[in-house]
Amino acid sequence: MISKIALFSATALLGMAAPAIAAGAPTDPQIAHIAYTAGNLDIAAGKQALAKSHNKAVRSFAQEMVRDHQAVNGKALALVKKLHVTPEANPTSTSLTTGANATRARLAKLSGAAFDRAYIDNEIAYHKTVNGALESTLIPSAKNGELKSLLEIGLTLFREHQHHAEQVAKEVK
Questions:
Q1: How far is CA 46 from CA 18, 25, 126, 134, in A?
Q2: Mean of pLDDT over the chain
Q3: CA 162 to chain centre
Q4: Nearby residues of 9 by Cβ (< 8 Å), 6 or more positions away
Q5: How many angstroms separate the CA atoms of 27 and 22, rounded?
Q6: Quick count: other Cβ atoms within 10 Å of Cβ 76?
Q7: Is residue 3 over pLDDT 50?
């Protein structure tokens, strides 16, 4: 069962595409900022898990999140530099940050198995939502072919993250 924290996070993320859609499709600079922000937030969540968890499977998953999201964000930064694009803050990236900060604060109050379950449940919900936003809004809205390609590569990797989180969830229940 998904925890209340994960449901809160997923609800916050479900609004991810709404601000961009309301104002029309997001621009490439906005998409770049949203994707980079989402990656940074998962890096921060992974670092929190590494600081709090003693569960081998949870720690391994958190290390994977930090490593993979840092690698993708590094590629994203190199691409925007190459294209001379400045990522543009927007209501979606701001909303993501606000929601993730609230989730990290809630998770900070937990420990042991309760933390592990809440962290993994949140990661499942987070990846489902981000993957959905990539599929339905970000990739279709990207105009630059290189940006679109990077988002598609990210989607493949993040689907693997979701699957891995679902496997870890079976171990921490």
A1: 26, 30, 12, 21
A2: 89
A3: 10
A4: 99, 100, 103, 122, 125, 126
A5: 13
A6: 20
A7: no
The pLDDT confidence band at residue 173, using thresholds 50, 70 and 90, is: confident
pTM of the entire structure?
0.86
- Lowest mean pLDDT: which of 7-21, 68-82, 93-107, 129-143? 7-21
Q: Which residue segments constitute the domains of the chain, with CATH numbers given?
A: 4-11+26-172 (1.20.1260.10)
Between the alpha carbon of residue 105 and those of residues 68, 141, 144, 146, 163, the distances in Å are 23, 33, 36, 36, 25
Residues in the chain: 173
Place of tokens 């997923």: 10
Give how far Cα 109 sits from Cα of 38, 48, 57, 106, 166, Å: 23, 12, 21, 6, 23
Distance CA 87, CA 173 (A): 39
DSSP state of 27: P
